[in-house]
Design a protein that fits this description.
mainly alpha, 2 domains, 7 helices
C-alpha cells in the first residue's frame, strides 16, 4: 500500500512538471522511506499512549535512533521483520521502564557498561551495508562522542531530578549495546568483520 502511494505521489509530481521522469525512482524511494519512518513513529507514539508513557517512548526512540544509525548493530533481514522486531522491542523497553526498580547505582553501572561496549564494538556493520575503512573510523569516533554525550545527559538529568527521563536514556544506551553484541555475533558467524 505504501509503495503504491509513493508511486502515485511521484506520478502526480511528474504530471505537473515538478520532478523529472528520470528522477522518479529516487522520489518513489524517498516517499516510501518517509512513509515507513512516519508509520514507525506513529506506532511508537501509539504504544507510548497505550502504556501511558508517551514522553518516555519518544525520548527512547530519539536517543536510540540517533546512536543506532551511527553505531549499527543487528538488523532484521526484511522491512516487515524489522517492524515486528521494533514493535516487540518497544513493548519490552516500555515494560522494563515501567516495572523495573530503577535507581542511580543501577543506571551508573549500565551507563558505564554500555559506553564501554560502544567504545569496543561500534560500529557494527550489516551485510547489506558494509563499511569501508574511512567510514569505520568516522562512525567509531562519532559513536564514542555521542555515547559520552549521552552519559553527560544522564548525569545532568539525575542532577536536576529528572530520573524518569534519565532511565529512558540509560535504557536506550543499553538496548543499543545489546544490538551491537547481537550484530557482532551474527557477523562473526557469517565471516563478516
Amino acid at each position: 500500500m505504501l509503495k503504491k502511494l509513493s508511486n502515485k505521489i511521484t506520478k502526480k509530481l511528474i504530471d505537473i512538471n515538478i520532478i523529472e521522469v528520470s528522477d522518479s525512482e529516487l522520489y518513489e524511494y524517498g516517499f516510501w522511506q518517509g512513509g515507513v519512518l512516519f508509520f514507525n513513529f506513529l506506532t511508537v507514539a501509539l504504544l507510548g499512549i497505550l502504556f501511558n508513557m508517551l514522553l518516555e517512548s519518544i525520548i527512547f526512540l530519539i536517543f536510540y535512533g540517533v546512536l543506532r544509525t551511527i553505531a549499527g548493530g543487528y538488523h532484521a533481514r526484511t522491512q516487515h521483520a524489522c517492524y515486528i522486531l521494533s514493535v516487540l522491542l518497544m513493548i519490552v523497553v516500555l515494560t522494563i521502564l515501567k516495572t523495573f526498580p530503577w535507581n542511580t547505582i543501577i543506571c551508573c553501572i549500565l551507563t558505564v557498561l554500555s559506553i564501554s561496549i560502544i567504545f569496543i564494538l561500534a560500529p557494527v556493520q550489516d551485510e547489506n551495508k558494509l563499511l569501508d575503512e574511512t567510514e569505520k573510523m568516522v562512525f567509531k569516533r562519532l559513536s564514542r562522542v555521542i555515547s559520552l554525550l549521552y552519559g553527560l545527559i544522564i548525569f545532568l538529568l539525575f542532577l536536576f531530578n529528572k530520573n524518569d527521563l534519565a532511565y529512558c536514556v540509560v535504557v536506550s544506551l543499553f538496548t543499543l549495546t545489546i544490538m551491537l553484541v547481537l550484530g557482532k555475533i551474527r557477523n562473526k558467524s557469517r565471516g563478516i568483520m
